[in-house]
Amino acid sequence: MTVPTGRRERKKAATRQKIADTALRLFLEHGYDTVGIRDVAAEADVAVTTLFSHFASKEALVFEQDENFEQRLTQAVTGRAPHEPLIPALRHEIQALVRHCTADSAAPIWHMIDTSPALRKYEESMRLRHAESLATAIAADPDLPQTTTACHAIARFAIDAFSLAREAADPRAAVDEIFHMIEAAWNATSPSPGAPGTASST
């Protein structure tokens, strides 16, 4: 996520972080279903309207890194060096996200998510949105002539790799194993040398 530089932007980012940290602490201490939006706002010493100006829903308070993760995934595509292969760049970013989400400090948070139907549903919708953004970034790259279908499939596979690896006994090894399969699938969809580009086909 872009680091805010102006005073107003820094203050806004600090308020957002304070709300998110307060919400997470209350959720972990008292239970996600027990704590309400007004409880979070009161504890963070902000108005409810201020809270909603930063977070669209109660579920979003738990996933405050949502936008940052989405940007990192798309930047793994758009920020690659010229001629840098796509799949290794994606694997590197997914590995970094998995390391972040499998740290010991994250375990209580994921336990809370896994035991809450509302949070599981939100996380699923978030993964679909991330996959759509990633697919759009891949399809827009003129150096990647795969079909639209292939771009969407690979994006979904990459996002699912994160979820599968997070639950694996050895997350790093799981990412590597899954991306070996993803790379094989991606290469299988690459047009043969000299074949006309098909990036806009379905």
Automatic annotation (TrEMBL):
Highest taxon of the lineage: Bacteria
Residue ranges of every copy of the HTH tetR-type domain listed in the record: 13-73
DNA-binding region, residue intervals: 36-55
Species in which this protein is naturally found: Streptomyces violaceusniger (strain Tu 4113)
Pfam families: TetR_N
Transcription found in the keyword field: yes
InterPro entries noted in UniProt: Homeodomain-like_sf, HTH-type_TetR-like_transc_reg, HTH_TetR
Gene3D superfamilies, A to Z: Tetracycline Repressor, domain 2 (1.10.357.10)
Lineage of producing organism: Bacteria, Bacillati, Actinomycetota, Actinomycetes, Kitasatosporales
Keyword terms: DNA-binding, Transcription, Transcription regulation
GO molecular function, one term: transcription cis-regulatory region binding
Protein name listed in UniProt: Regulatory protein TetR
